[in-house]
Automatic annotation (TrEMBL):
This is FtsK domain-containing protein. PROSITE patterns: FTSK. ATP binds at residues 194-201. It comes from the Bacteria.
Amino acid sequence: AGVPIWLATAAHYGITHMPVLVGYTTAAALAWSGYTWSDVLKTRRAWKTQQTEWDTLATAAGLDGSRLVAVEDTRLGQRFRIDIRATGRTARQLTRGDLAERIAAHLALPAERVRVTIDPKHAGQIFILVQTRDPWAEPVPHPALTGGAVEPVAGRRRSILDGPLVLGLDPDTGHDLELVVFDRAGGRHTMIVAATGGGKTTLYNNVVEQATARTDVLVWAIDLGKGTIPTIWGDALDAGAGIDEYDRALAILTWATIVIKERSRATGGRNHTPSPTAPVILILVDEMDTLLGLDSPIGHKAKPLVEDIVRRGRSAGVLLAAAGQRGTVQHTGSKDPHANAGNKIVLRVNRPSEMGNVIPDWEIQGMPNMATYAQGVRGVALVVDAENNWRAGRVRDMSDLDAVQALAARRGRPTATLEPDIAALLPGYLERHRIPATVGHGTVGHGTVGHGAPAGRLVPLPRHDHDGGGNDGRAGGDGGHGWGVDPGDEQAIDRLAKGLVAEVEAKLAGMPTPPDRPTSLADLVAAKAAFDAAEDNDADTNRTLDVPDHIARPILTLLAERGADGASPADLVKATGKGESTVRRWLAIMRDHDLIVSRGSTRATRYYLPEHDPEPDHGK
C-alpha cells in the first residue's frame, strides 16, 4: 500500500517537493538498513550458535577454557581455529595427546577423521580438522588408463619447470597430491618408505608416467629385487637395471656421478637449467636394500656413488628417488639418503616407529600415523617436503600392470637426450643410445633420434689425440671409423695396448698390500656397532678399538699447542674436519686409551693431554 500512496502523492505535489523527497529517502534508507542488518544479525546468531556448540564439544573433550576463533568449511567437513591460552596446556601437549580421539568419539566419527595441528603463526592456537564425510568413498583412477587423458605428442609435452609431478588427490581440498622434484630453486631428492604391499610400485608407476611425459627429463630405474619398473616401462626409460643386474646398476650410478661432475664443472656449481638436450635425470631405486643394504653384494661399491649423488646432484639436475621397506641404515646403507632427501613419502607401514625413522617429528606436526591411517584403503600416501609442509591423500590407481605396460609402449622412447660431450664420457652409454650431435673431432652417435642404426649397435667413440699426431690425414687417425685408432694399424694397436698396461700399473702402484687375513662382514658390522656406542661403552671395550693416525694426530697436535688451556669439542671438530658426533666417539675412545683427559660436562667439556691435566688427582 505504501508504493501507490507515494506515487499518488508524488503525482499531486511533484517528485521534487521537499516533504515527498525526504519521506521517500527516509523510507528507502530504513528499508535497506533493515535488509542488510538482517543478514548481519543472521550471521551473528549463526556465530553464537557455533560458539555454543563448540563450548559443548570442548567440555566433552576436556578442553574447558578454550575459545572458538574461526570456522572454515572444507571439502569434507570443517576446520576450527581454537584459542587455548586459557586452558593451561600448550599446543604441543594437545597435538600429542588424545584430544582428537575425544572429539571423534563425541561426534561418532573414526579417530583418523579428526586431526589436531599447531598453528605455526600463533603458539596459543591450534587447528582442528573434522572430516564429516568419508574421504575415501570415491576411487582415484588414473586418467591415462581410463581414457580421460590423451597421450601427449612430443611437441605438446610439458617441461619439468612447468609444474610438479601429480601423484594423486588430497581429499581434504580436492587438490592434486603433488611432488616437486625440480623447480627453479633446484632439485629435490625423494625418500620413499612402505611395507611389503604398501603401494611402492603403484607410486613409482605414477612418478614414471609423469616424468616421461616431460620434454626435459630422463628416467633411469634400478630394481634389483623384482625388476618391475624396468620391465613394465621398458623403452620409455633411458636406462634400467633389473633382477640381479648388478653391473648395470653400478654403471647407472657411475654415469650419474660423471654427469654431476661435468655439469658442475661447466656451471661452477650453479643450478642446472634443464632442456631437451640437457635434461634432468631422475634415478628411481626400488628395494633400496638390494643395492645399498648390508646384504647387498655391491653395497660397498654402490654406497659411495649414491652418497655422491645425494650430496652433489641437486644443483646438477641429477636426482634420486629411493624406496625401501624401512628408513634405517641397514636398508639405506647410510644416513645420507635420509639427511639429503628434500621430499619424504610414507605409504602404508607396519609400525608407528617406522614413521619416526623417516619423519622424527611427525606427531608434533600433526601428520597421520601411516600404520593405522585409512585402514583397508589402498594407495594412501603422506607426502612431506623440505619445509615439513605435508599432505596426505590417495595415489592414482596404476596397479593394473598390463595397462601400464601398454601405456609405456604407446609412450615410446624418450625425446630428451644427454649433452653429447657428457654422453661420450659415460662408459657403455652410447652402446644403447643415439646422440644427435658432433663432439670434438669425431662424430658421436648415429644421427638424429629415430633414425640410423638400431639400439644396441656399438657406437663409435670420439677421437682423443694424446700425442697430437699420427692420424695420417684421416679423421681421428682411425680410417674414418671413429674408433680413435685405425683397426688395420697393428703398430698403433700395440702402442695403445702397452700404454694401457703402463697406465694400469701406474694406478695400482700406490695401492696398499692386502692383509694376510681378510676381515669378515660380520666383524666389520660388530666393529661399527662398537664405534657407534663408544660414548656409552666401558673402558675395556673402547681399548679394543684402534685410533687411526689421521684422527689422533690433529687432536694430539692441537692439545699439545694449547697446553694448559685445553680445547673444546668444537675446536677438535674443526681440527679433524669430521662431524661432531664422530669426533665425540673418537674422543671417548682416546680418553679410555689414556691418550687424553676430559674435564667438565656437556658443552663446557674441555680436553687436555694428561701432562696438562688441571685436576691430576681427579678420577677419570
